[in-house]
Amino acid sequence: MRGVYLIFMLFLSGSLVISCSSNPYSKTNKVYKKQAKAYSKQLKQLPSQENQNESALNYGEYWAGTTNFNLRKPNYVVIHHTAQDSVQQTLTTFTLPRTQVSSHYVIAKNGEIYHMLNDFYRAWHGGVGKWGNNTDLNSSSLGIEIDNNGEEEFTDLQIISLVELLAEIKEKYKIPAENFIGHSDIAPTRKVDPNANFPWKRLAEEGFGLWYDEAEVEKLKLEAEFFKPNPLAINFNSRLNTRIPFIDKLVFPEVIPADFNIENALKIIGYDTSDLEAAKSAFKLHFIQEDLDKAFDSYDLKVLYQLYEKYL
Ligand SMILES: [Zn+2]
């Protein structure tokens, strides 16, 4: 009997050693658990009558806790590249308190997904940013980092894992397609990730993010290209040269009106246009993905117009 007990103890201590040595993050996992416990405690706190009594607000005399609630859930997904040299480097970065950065998921080059934070907690991946009127994306989003040095291609295995992960997240939290965005979209003056190799078009085909109809873009013409001034009317200051917008739109739907406002269209998609040039660059990085050094040209304008017409 004693022998069996000894063997059992040896087996137990052996498996403990194996489990500790096999996870290089066991130390920081302990810190995670401790912090999660502290937040759980905070969540359990009831609105305190004492604090209400001290407050200048006119609270009712008793506490009436509702029976109907659940946890807040994410409604956006922000995609990043890590701009680091390996997934190990990123896991280390996200487990060092001094870095003050993290994300919910990290996807390695071999397609392995590291889930680093419960989806209901707030990760620190977005920093200062804005999308529409949302100025605290960290509170409403999940952050997904893809291991990539900032310039290289993403691996097929990474994209396969990403698409599977996004499908699960989209279904679980009912996130609309247009709320799958990139870090550069929410922080155009500061960020350029994910880089131009990121397959936004493929993702949009799977239901994550917006994309335009390329064939429709080819048909579009600028008003100035389409309506040449009528040479017969030049000397008469005639109404023949005056466009009537709603009629033009019906008769010539492929013509982009001269007064189409780039800034407003970018704003409606979600971009912070307080630095308009930065917003245009972020748009190009996401939707054009080439000639990024060149100014916003007529093709870029057509893509923006097509997106605007298609979704907004
Ligand atoms: Zn980022």
User: What is the end-to-end distance?
Assistant: 76 Å
Which strand order do you get reading across the main beta sheet? 3-2-4-1-5
Number of strands: 7
Order of helices and strands: HHHEHEEHEHEHHHEHHEHHH
- How would you characterize the largest beta sheet? 5 strands, mixed
Which features would summarize this protein structure in a list?
alpha/beta; five-stranded mixed sheet; binds zinc ion; two-stranded parallel sheet
Description of the structure:
The chain is of the alpha/beta class. The protein has 14 helices and seven strands. The strands form two sheets. It has a five-stranded mixed beta sheet with strand order 3-2-4-1-5, sandwiched between helices. Strand 2 (about 105) and strand 3 form a beta hairpin. Helix 12 crosses helix 14 (about 300-310). Zinc ion (ZN) binds next to loops.
Short description:
By secondary structure, the chain is of the alpha/beta class. It has 14 helices and seven strands.
